[in-house]
Design brief:
Layout: H1 18-31, E1 38-41, H2 47-51, H3 57-60, E2 67-70, H4 72-79, H5 85-99, H6 104-118, H7 123-131, H8 133-136, H9 144-150, H10 154-168, H11 176-193, H12 201-211
Parallel strand pairs: 1-2
Helix pairs in contact: 5-6, 6-7, 9-12, 10-11
Length: about 220
């Protein structure tokens, strides 16, 4: 509630499918995470399905009311994989007109315009956005300062960069336990430095209190 980032777990996975993520969510629920208002995910295989209210009942049973927000930064990055370097800046600017639109209606118009402009060259991009649209748009329900809190997984990306720096200093590990121990110690040190609240957290908190009155802790 103070807006500080908190690390809830560390897992090593052979594959990141829906079954794996369902197990993680169930574990978090069993450990006391009673509710998740908004989950920002990076589109890993199976993760959105594990949250989605309209998906399989097995997945929805964990947190059926959670709004799933795909990370826009990851979505743009994945979209640009289909574009030659010389045109990436122009395509990125047109994608920006979609996710920085003032309203959902303007975003839909911008996506349609994008498809009309680029589908002859890169049809995969608009198809990707149309297919994931229901998981892209939740943040449009909020004002700009709250959107910055919920539309990207940059917080976890920053954490991952710190962990990669730790691993780069080691040549090899004898087993998985050795990796886990090193990462655990690194996470403890990182957590101690996370003293500042998320930017614009107070504004977001007030909005969440109004948006989710029945679920908001008092």
């Amino acid at each position: 509630m103070s807006g500080q980032k908190e690390l809830l777990g560390l897992w090593i996975a052979q594959s990141e499918g829906a079954k794996f993520w369902l197990g993680i969510l169930t574990e978090l629920k069993n450990r006391g995470v009673q509710d998740i208002l908004i989950a920002c995910v990076d589109g890993l295989t199976g993760f959105p399905e594990a949250y989605a209210c309209g998906g399989a009942k097995l997945y929805a049973a964990v947190y059926p009311q959670t709004q799933v927000q795909l990370c826009i930064v990851h979505l743009v990055r994945n979209s640009l994989k289909y574009v030659p370097w010389k045109q990436q800046r122009q395509v990125a600017a047109d994608l920006k007109s979609i996710y920085q639109a003032s309203t959902l209606e303007q975003a839909e118009d911008a996506l349609t315009a994008f498809a009309q402009k680029w589908d002859n060259h890169y049809p995969t991009i608009s198809k990707l956005w149309f297919r994931l649209w229901e998981q892209i748009i939740p943040f449009f329900a909020y004002p700009a300062d709250v959107r910055r809190v919920v539309y990207t997984t940059n917080a976890i990306e920053s954490l991952n960069r710190s962990l990669r720096k730790v691993l780069k200093t080691k040549g090899s590990f004898p087993d998985d336990d050795a990796v886990l121990k090193l990462l655990y110690l690194a996470l403890r040190n990182i957590a101690k430095k996370s003293t500042m609240p998320i930017k614009d957290w107070r504004t977001a908190l007030n909005r969440f209190a109004i948006e989710f009155p029945e679920r908001f802790p008092h």
